[in-house]
Amino acid sequence: MLYEKAPAKINLTLDVLHKRLDGFHEVEMVMTTVDLADRVWIRAIEGGQIKIKSSVQFVPTDRKNLAYQAADLIRTTYGIKQGVEITLEKRIPVAAGLAGGSSDAAATLRGLNKLWKLGLGADRLAELGAQIGSDVPFCVYGGTALATGRGEVIQKISAPPNCWVILAKPVLSVSTGSIFKNLDLTSVQHPNTKDMLEALKTGDYKGMCRSVGNVLEPVTMDLYPEVTVLKEQMIKFGADTVQMSGSGPTVFGLVEHESRVPRIYNGLKGFCREVYAVRMLGERHLFD
Ligand SMILES: C[C@](O)(CO)[C@H](O)COP(=O)(O)OP(=O)(O)OC[C@H]1O[C@@H](n2ccc(N)nc2=O)[C@H](O)[C@@H]1O
Ligand SMILES: Nc1ncnc2c1ncn2[C@@H]1O[C@H](COP(=O)(O)OP(=O)(O)OP(=O)(O)O)[C@@H](O)[C@H]1O
């Protein structure tokens, strides 16, 4: 039985430059992995099927599951006949803006590359991942990166300075497609990606906090006022900066001093069921 860790990502910045002819949006995002992870177990089985088991009932186990799609893609591309059972121990909240499904798909690609001794490099796995979803290539590498294109062009960058990340997810699921559809590009406030890259390069925690920005945040907040409330609460409880991740609805707060974490965590727990206090994974890449 093979094990792969599938960590969640957060978007320190998320900018949209323009809408492309293929319907996707050209983005520029600084992403990093955090220590909240699904566990993916993979084993070969008789019968040539792809079987998905999930610890969470409402996650699909058919070909709608991104891990299924990853296994199917790698099997057809490399003419593999052997069956495989993939067990997803879900820890990352679903439809949360934390790339849970994408990370499971990326972990499946890494795991099957090992199981079937395909000898594929990270870049090739990322290329395959791009056929499954825009966030999958980043999840293949993990660590910290600047993602451009529709999210699939990955450039490794310096890890953020050490800090705590508090994640809070309101009880609602957000469809990424509908948030992009509601984005009005004539009135967006673009984040300063250059300042963020500089802050990471120089290990400037305050500079990092000043440079967070996500153009999708106001779109999701307009549709779901709970997200605004959660952000305001997290600021009130003392986070250094707070922002929504991806298309939401999870918001994350950055906290430099560990002593401040319990107050924020406990304060949020009072009215939000899903709250996590985790570390960033920084430079720890997932591909070896
Ligand atoms: C919002 C982010 O999570 C930020 O990390 C990602 O950009 C979304 O990545 P994802 O969930 O892997 O998204 P995909 O499954 O590729 O796309 C879902 C839908 O989002 C929209 N979409 C996604 C990425 C992108 N660059 N432009 C888009 O317009 C498209 O309508 C697409 O049909
Ligand atoms: N392995 C999986 N884990 C969770 N959800 C999955 C998985 N495969 C497919 N899905 C479906 O995908 C939808 C989005 O789930 P996911 O948790 O990946 O969203 P997300 O965190 O918002 O992703 P992103 O940040 O990449 O937009 C869910 O509604 C679920 O039905």
UniProtKB/TrEMBL annotation:
Its EC number is 2.7.1.148. Residues 65-143 form the GHMP kinase N-terminal domain. Pathway: Isoprenoid biosynthesis; isopentenyl diphosphate biosynthesis via DXP pathway; isopentenyl diphosphate from 1-deoxy-D-xylulose 5-phosphate: step 3/6. Gene3D superfamilies: 3.30.230.10, GHMP kinase, C-terminal domain. SUPFAM superfamilies: GHMP Kinase, C-terminal domain (SSF55060), Ribosomal protein S5 domain 2-like (SSF54211). It is an enzyme of class 2 (transferase). One of its GO terms (molecular function) is 4-(cytidine 5'-diphospho)-2-C-methyl-D-erythritol kinase activity. It comes from the Bacteria. ATP binds at residues 93-103. Keywords: ATP-binding, Isoprene biosynthesis, Kinase, Nucleotide-binding, Transferase. It catalyses: 4-CDP-2-C-methyl-D-erythritol + ATP = 4-CDP-2-C-methyl-D-erythritol 2-phosphate + ADP + H(+). InterPro entries: GHMP_kinase_C_dom, GHMP_kinase_C_sf, GHMP_kinase_N_dom, IspE, Ribosomal_Su5_D2-typ_SF, Ribsml_uS5_D2-typ_fold_subgr. Residues 196-272 form the GHMP kinase C-terminal domain. The active site is at residues 9, 135. The keyword Ubl conjugation does not apply. HAMAP family: IspE (MF_00061). Belongs to the GHMP kinase family. IspE subfamily. Catalyzes the phosphorylation of the position 2 hydroxy group of 4-diphosphocytidyl-2C-methyl-D-erythritol. This is 4-diphosphocytidyl-2-C-methyl-D-erythritol kinase. It comes from Sporosarcina siberiensis.
